Amino acid sequence: MTVLIIGDADRPDSAGESPGRFAVRGPESDAWFDAETDRAVVGWRCVLIGSAADVAVYRELALRAGAEPDEISVVVTQDGSVDVYCPVCGTVGPAPPCGSCGANLVVTDYVSSRLAARLGVPDAAS
Questions:
Q1: Which residues have CB under 8 Å from 18's CB, separation 6+?
Q2: Which stretches of the chain drop beneath a pLDDT of 50?
Q3: Long-range CB contacts (< 8 A, 24+ apart) of 24-32?
Q4: Residues 53, 82: contact at Cβ < 8 Å?
Q5: Contact 106, 99 (CB under 8 A)
Q6: What 3-state class would DSSP assign to 117?
């Protein structure tokens, strides 16, 4: 079983001998996960633990590598920072408001696995 933990979530008892544990998503965690999916065989199981944006990215990568949806379990943890995609200027960063163009955004529940960010929608009230 492959267990990837991003952040400071508790390690589950079922994590096995050597779960991948990384403080933040980045090149090191990406390389580890690529190596895990490269050696995956039929019956492989993947548990992803981290923020909604991080697990969405790795779930998409696992699916692209040939994993079946029922082989992937996801545990979303709370994290203090949420990156938001601003459709007004096309940037990703903390919001609201957008740090780039100043648009007041309403943050939706939709998480883009490509951008690792939530979708912001311009606030009609502003």
A1: none
A2: none
A3: 25/50, 25/54, 25/57, 25/116, 29/4, 32/4
A4: yes
A5: no
A6: strand
Rounded CA-CA distance 110/121 in Å is 11
Query: What pLDDT is attached to residue 14?
Result: 65
From CA 5, how far away is CA 2, in angstroms rounded?
A: 10
> Residue 35, Cβ neighbours under 10 Å: how many?
12
Separation between Cα atoms, residue 103 and residue 100, nearest integer Å: 8
Hey, what are 108's tokens?
């939706």
**Residues contacting 87, CB < 8 A, separation 6+:** 119, 120, 121, 122
- Quick check: pTM over 0.85? no
Residue whose C-alpha is closest to residue 53's, from 20, 31, 24: 24
Determine the Cα–Cα distance for residues 26 and 66; give it in Å rounded to an integer.
22
Q: Where are the beta strands (DSSP E) in the chain?
A: 2-6, 20-22, 46-50, 72-76, 83-85, 92-94, 105-112, 117-122
Task: Give the integer Cα–Cα distance in Å for 4 and 7.
Answer: 10
